[in-house]
Amino acid sequence: MTSHPVHENIASSNTAINGKQDQIAFRHRTASNSIRDVEVYSNKIEYKGKLLIYSIIIDVTERKRLEA
Predict the structure, then answer these.
(1) How far apart are CA 53 and CA 21, in angstroms?
(2) What is the three-class DSSP state of 64?
(3) What's the pLDDT tens digit per position in 4-63?
(4) What is the spatial distance between Cα 39 and Cα 42, in angstroms, rounded to a whole number?
(5) CA atoms in the 13 A half-sphere facing the CB of 68
(6) Residues in a beta bridge with 50
(7) Based on the number of CB atoms within 10 Å of its own CB, is 41 exposed (0-12), middle (13-18) or buried (19 or more)?
(8) Cα 18 to the chain's mean position, in Å?
(9) Which candidate, 35, 10, 40, 11, places its Cα nearest to that of 25?
(10) Could you write out the DSSP letters of every residue in 6-41?
């Protein structure tokens, strides 16, 4: 397994979806070097006295292909 900074996986990014900072869309480069369109939904939660950030990442490549 190879380790590298996460920003190297972003092929291109768009502005926030619906103007919200917790929802973004960008093109992600996979380990096999293919490009996938993803939407990321993030929020902050407090757990056991610690502030955490969680993200839900959805691969929307097929949906975008069907819409085109």
Answers:
(1) 13
(2) helix
(3) 455 455 555 554 444 455 788 888 888 899 999 999 888 888 999 999 988 898 999 999
(4) 10
(5) 6
(6) 47
(7) middle
(8) 15
(9) 40
(10) GGGGEEEE-PPGGG-TTEEEEEEE-TTS-EEEEEEE
